[in-house]
Amino acid sequence: MFFRRAREDRVFREAQRAGFALLRQLQATQPWPAASEPTAPAPAVEEAVVPDFLPPDLPVPSRQEVAGVMMRWQQPLVIGGEVRTCPGCGMYRDWIILCMRDDSIWLRCRAGHETNEPGLDAAWFNRHSGPVDRFHPTLDEGLRHLGH
User: Fold this and answer.
1) Of 42-51, 81-90, 94-103, the least confident
2) What is the pLDDT of residues 68-90, one digit of tens each?
């Protein structure tokens, strides 16, 4: 058993040495690419300064300036191992999840019933929501945009 492992190791090392010898031979016979002398870049007459900030014509409201953020959640919502259902109509999928300015989470079903969900928080919302793609002046316009 021990001799077999030693023999396999010896065969492996010999194959490695043969491969390295072949690589060294190929390196010796291959011509090096023509390398040009490194040249110093010419000094720029006037370098354009690129600002690191967003352009002033791109106003993006801060989190405190908006009333809340919403996203669509089409699959069943499982909180604490239980599927969440609407207390008004019993619906269990196709939610609009609203994260308000005070970090409270509200669920809205397709029928328009809204309930506070203490089992979710803003960190959960931020993990599961995508980037904000649009701002709406009213809740109704946002709901229309999401298909409710």
Assistant:
1) 42-51
2) 889 999 999 999 999 999 999 99
Residue 143: predicted pLDDT: 87
Q: State residue 44's pLDDT score.
A: 61
Task: Check: CB of residue 106 under 8 Å from CB of residue 114.
Answer: yes
Distance CA 1, CA 5 (A): 7
Query: Which tokens hold the place of 100?
Result: 């308000």
DSSP-derived pairing of the beta strands 105-108 and 95-100 = antiparallel
- Tally of CB atoms within 10 A around 145: 13
CA–CA separation, 117 and 76 (whole Å): 15
Q: How far is CA 96 from CA 56, 101, 132, in A?
A: 32, 16, 15
Closest residue by Cα to residue 136 from 93, 96, 103: 96
